[in-house]
Amino acid sequence: SEGLETPTRYLAALEAVQLELEAVEEEAARAFRRLRARFCLRRRPHLQRRNRLIQHIPGFWVTAFLNHPQLSAMISDRDEDALSYMTSLQVEEFGQSRPGCRIRFFFSVNPYFQNDVVAKEFVRGPSGHLVSHSTPIRWWQGQDPRSRPHKGPPAPRSFFAWFGDHSFPAGDRVAEIIKEELWPNPLQFYLLGEGAEGPPDR
Amino acid sequence: SEGLETPTRYLAALEAVQLELEAVEEEAARAFRRLRARFCLRRRPHLQRRNRLIQHIPGFWVTAFLNHPQLSAMISDRDEDALSYMTSLQVEEFGQSRPGCRIRFFFSVNPYFQNDVVAKEFVRGPSGHLVSHSTPIRWWQGQDPRSRPHKGPPAPRSFFAWFGDHSFPAGDRVAEIIKEELWPNPLQFYLLGEGAEGPPDR
């Protein structure tokens, strides 16, 4: 019976190891949560100041979007005008307990839609897949691009089509660019188009 | 000229804020790197002990794979036999400076291929996209499934087809399952099939 008991002994030892690992993981999760919270607080006053400064620069966000080599490809002429009313961007990462992020776009009163803020949000669904949601856009009468008669060649890719597209969140390259490139340093993209004028005074 | 200078002043202030944010991000990156290294060290002895224990349980990994509801769907009968020679799994996350991970599968001498370890690796390519690579499998003569005559209905999904598939790394659900579910607690999947026998002695 020694031979029969041995695998059970190994399994019991393995279970003990898993419990030890679990304790380490819980401690790690707490430590990372604390560190994230600490740096979230550290960033906040700078981000608030950045947000206030940007509001003084008309067309900052639409310019930064248009100057990004990949984002510009999905901004139609109509998008460009709608995005010229964008006043603020906010990217918020959720904690480790709920991985995901929310991208919020703030707008001033504009002739396209009624929302003053729209959000696209990415979270893990119950199956473990990344899923996305977005605020329904309340277009003004006749402004919904899907209901407008369309002439000429097929419509180019559009910012608002991306915004409402939830077909493949894990491969949402636009969200990734906004989160990883534009949000950390929007100024560099804003300035890209200003080459001829040189960098701002220091 | 006050009106002309104002945007430049805001841009200069914005640049100063970006530099401050950059300093915070560098400090954050250092702090997270330190914390990751600390917990990597904390986990190591437990993972080494787990690895040694698992080697004493024949067929541990193939059983854990087969008992995972989603992984089992991509294990053909031939895969099952090949995976019965798998002795060890290793999942290694790269640092933040080089996001990605490497999954290594260790095998004992077997009639299918010559490698004793094969790895599938995920890294960010220069364009920012996730790309994957894997070790070329040195099949023994006549064992490469791609060169074997195939009878009957289309081949089911296969572990080795997944291993060599680099068409869409960002959506590699199998890698995600191995990394996020199997690796943290393989024992729970190993035991799933043992329901009738009850949990191991404690």
UniProtKB/TrEMBL annotation, chains A, B:
GO terms for cellular component: nucleus. It holds the Pfam family NAP. One of its GO terms (biological process) is nucleosome assembly. InterPro entries: NAP-like_sf (IPR037231), NAP_family (IPR002164). Gene3D superfamilies: 1.20.5.1500, Nucleosome assembly protein. Belongs to the nucleosome assembly protein (NAP) family. This is TSPY. It comes from Zosterops lateralis melanops.
